[in-house]
Amino acid sequence: MTKSNLGRRAAIAAVTAVVLSGAATIPTDGAQAQQIQQLIDVERQVAQAGAQSQATIDKIADETDKLVSEYRTIMTQIDNIKVYNQQLTDLVASQEKERQSLQTQIENVSLVEREIVPLMQRMINTLEQFIELDTPFLLEERKQRVQALRALMARADVSTAEKYRRLMEAYQVESEFGRNIEAYSGTLELNGQARTVDFLRFGRVVLAYQTLDGNEQGVWDNKAKQWVVLPDTYRGALRQGLAIARRQAAPDLLVLPVSAPETVR
């Protein structure tokens, strides 16, 4: 209830008290007493009407206060919504910039892809030719790796990035062959007969073999593209080299035939 409403109610109560107190001092003889009683009744009616009016005013004032409070709450919500809408506008603008950036990147990727796919095909062809001309170790494994790359290039469910990664992986494997030693068993055709032998590879410098019984050994002549049988003097060196490659013996100096590099004129 507001201060003005309290003031009005207090004023009405004061007037009523004054009238009633005055009436109590007036003589109550005859017609005057009747008139005074009528005045008192009228005053009481006025007081009751004023009280009812005051109640109505108080009710209206309370409703007005409630409406004002609701109005302020709604205005606060509107301000919050305006701030939120502005934030959404900024976010949409930022997303639009990001979309345009991604679209540009996609276009650039498409351009790079059109250029890199033919390059990858040439790299596979080069790798295949290199294996054909290289020392013939692990030929089946290396040729199958090239065929797997060709099959991979024809797959639509594999990204260009993954294809390129696999191609680089194959090149890395070929590069590692030139920096390590290896011993493995395989089949070799000797004198028209297929025999199981132990191969010994030192990088790409030496590729030799020794039969399982140790009675025959040889080395690959990359210039002549053929196997050359080695004398028995290399039997022990090859046996020791196989043990070193298999980590059955400590590294040591070995004497093995190595093809002289070609001179460029």
Describe this structure in words.
- The chain is of the alpha+beta class.
- Among the domains are: 112-177; 181-245, no CATH class.
- The chain contains 5 helices and 5 strands.
- Strands 1-2-3-4-5 form a 5-stranded antiparallel beta sheet, with helices on one face.
- The model is unreliable at 2-20 and 22-28 (pLDDT under 50).
What's the order of the H and E elements? HHHHEEEEEH
* Oligomeric state of this protein: single chain
Please tell me how large the radius of gyration is: 54 Å
Please tell me the overall pLDDT: 84
In total, how many beta strands?
5
Shape annotation? rod-shaped
Distance separating the two termini: 114 Å
Unreliable spans are 2-20, 22-28
List keywords for this structure.
265 residues; alpha+beta; five-stranded antiparallel sheet; 5 helices; 65% helix
Explain the layout of strands and helices:
Layout: H1 3-25, H2 30-133, H3 139-153, H4 160-177, E1 181-190, E2 193-202, E3 206-211, E4 217-221, E5 226-230, H5 235-245
Antiparallel strand pairs: 1-2, 2-3, 3-4, 4-5
Short description:
The chain has 265 residues and is of the alpha+beta class. Among the domains are: 112-177; 181-245, no CATH class.
